[in-house]
Amino acid sequence: MKRGINGLLLILAVLLCLPLGGSAHDVPEERKDCSIELLIRYDGEDITGGTLKAVKVGYVDQEDGNFFFYQEMTGEKLEDVASPEAAQKLKEFYDDNKDDYDFYTQIQTVTEGKSQFKNLTTGLYLIVQDNAAEGFSKLDAFLVGVPMMVEGEYQYHVTAAVKSELERTPTPVTPPAVKPSDPKLPQTGQLNWPVPLMASAGLGLFLLGWVLCFRKKRADHEK
Q: Which of 195 and 103 is assigned the larger pLDDT?
């Protein structure tokens, strides 16, 4: 009897831990005053700069008393919306079809570690970063569902930390300045400055020799 009670309690515990989209709950009401507040921090410090974009990619509906998100435009039921793979798949769909479909989009700046989207309808939102804060790389796309189930109750004003880590962009390394090569020929031991001096000395010796030679001939002639 005790083993049966323990087994029942275990089953109840598992049911309570099932994700929002997989357990039976009352279908959340359609609302237009929902909000998403995102917290963006790096190494314990609030980040300021850049923008985040919320794109509605899913709507809320039920199936057999269970609450699910369904993809906008296609009506496909979305499973495991917390996974990076699901976010990447919906981002690719958005990128490929944003010119053909009218996606609801809201863009907000990041100030003091927060970015808030207001006056949203219930649904599933793809969070994309087109412009990152200075010195940081862009965040990977992720999904946020509204409402969110917290302690058995639907929360229509969702606060969540970003699901992908911020990364600093590498600091560019400036290469050392390269001194332009000297177009002159390399020095080989013979300097250019003595050349005129040596030419002048040679000319002077030539003239001296010519004068001496002339005097000698004159002296011989006088004898």
A: 103
Q: How far is CA 92 from CA 25, 95, 110, 172, in A?
A: 31, 5, 24, 31
Q: pTM above 0.85?
A: no
Instruction: Measure the CA–CA gap between 155 and 185, rounded to whole angstroms.
Output: 80
- Model confidence over 90-110: pLDDT tens digits? 999 999 999 999 999 999 999
**C-alpha–C-alpha distance, residues 121 and 93, integer Å:** 21
Between strands 123-131 and 157-161, the pairing is: unpaired
Q: Which of 36, 32, 33 is closest to 115 using CA atoms?
A: 36
CB-based contacts of 39, cutoff 8 Å, min separation 6: 113, 114, 159, 160, 161, 162
The percent of residues in the chain predicted with pLDDT above 90, rounded, is 47
- Identify whether the C-beta of residue 137 lies closer than 8 Å to the C-beta of residue 121: no
Mapping DSSP onto H, E and C, the string for 48-85 reads CCCEEEEEEEEEEEEECCEEEEEECCCCCEECCCCCHH
Domains of the chain, earliest start first: 19-161 (2.60.40.10)
Task: Report the chain's mean pLDDT, rounded to a whole number.
Answer: 79
